[in-house]
Design a protein that fits this description.
Length: 297
């Protein structure tokens, strides 16, 4: 029922890049995500309060829209990938200038390379007196990451999540990388997306944050997502606003599920509720058999 529709080239439109921030613990992934999010909070917004729905979008000074996955760490990246949901277009590798390359830095490099995702190096904590960006660049060479400052092709930007130094440059570097990738999707087809996170909400029932990958998800659409199905009752964006639809690379909270899906599950819009239920029940059955087989073994 879920066909992989071939999009005609003329139906494709450019879409924002999806970015994951990776790096060693304490090198500033969370701080950087917060600082970037704050660059987009205009003074008019109520106290600068933004929703934490697992992903957010910012607009650069030049008007480029970027989607950041708000789940730092490598577990999210690898578990999504292992479930078949490759949602990241660009990895920002954070390396603390006062600590340089550490084991999880190397792990992140390996993940990005395995996934074939281009990297941008953010040399963070540049405000610290002990910052030594040259050491970072030199040590990255040992892991075949040759940054521009070392005559390589990987963009590197010195930043401080604390002072905000270099943040605009980082966003520009990401926008440039996205241009090179020529990311496209067809917004005029049945939506497909990946679950970034999901939970059972006391007031709202099962809620999933879905990153739309292709097509447009509308209020009222019927869908299957992993072993669950539903009909979109409401869509809420990263600003906490209700929206009628969400297109490619847009993260939205989806309400109207019959159960709670898992991160990495893929959402597909179907034509009828019977189809959606049938696929969901079939998948649940297969999963149950697998568990039984694993238990018997
Ligand atoms: P994560 O584990 O990679 O998510 O790192 P965090 O964002 O939690 O940051 C770890 C520590 O480094 C915290 O105490 C931050 O306040 C601090 N930190 C993060 N970025 C900067 C920075 O640009 N400059 C300085 N001086 N400290 C930073």
């Amino acid at each position: 029922v879920i066909q992989d529709i071939e999009d005609k080239p003329e139906d494709l439109q450019s879409r924002p890049p999806v970015i994951t921030i990776m790096g060693h613990v304490d090198h500033g992934k969370t701080s950087l995500l917060d600082a970037i999010r704050n660059t987009s909070v205009t003074s008019g917004e109520a106290g600068g309060i933004t929703q934490h729905i697992g992903a957010y979008q910012v607009t650069t000074k030049d008007g480029a829209v970027l989607t950041f996955l708000d789940t730092p760490g490598h577990a999210a990246f690898t578990s999504m990938r292992s479930r078949g949901a490759q949602v990241t277009d660009i990895v920002v590798l954070v390396v603390a200038a006062d600590d340089s390359v550490m084991p999880q830095t190397v792990e992140a490099i390996n993940h990005a390379k395995a996934a074939g995702v281009p990297m941008i190096v953010a040399i963070n904590k540049i405000d610290k007196p002990a910052a030594n960006p040259t050491k970072v660049r030199t040590e990255l060479l040992n892991h075949e990451v040759v940054v521009e400052a070392m005559s390589g092709e990987v963009q590197d930007v010195e930043v401080s999540a604390h002072t905000g130094q270099g943040l605009d440059d980082l966003l520009e570097a990401i926008a440039l990388q996205a241009e090179i990738l020529e990311l496209k999707a067809n917004p005029d087809r049945a939506a497909q997306g990946a679950v970034i996170e999901a939970q059972l909400d006391v007031g709202r029932g099962p809620v999933a944050t879905v990153l739309i990958q292709t097509g447009t998800l509308h209020q009222g659409d019927i869908f299957v997502v992993g072993e669950q199905y539903g009909k979109v009752r409401a869509l809420i964006n990263d600003k906490g606003d209700r929206v009628k639809e969400a297109g490619p690379s847009v993260p939205v909270e989806v309400l109207g599920l019959n159960g709670t899906p898992e991160a990495g599950d893929v959402l597909n819009v179907t034509e009828t509720e019977a189809q959606a239920r049938e696929i969901a029940e079939y998948r649940a059955g297969v999963a149950k058999e697998k568990r039984a087989a694993a238990g018997a073994a």
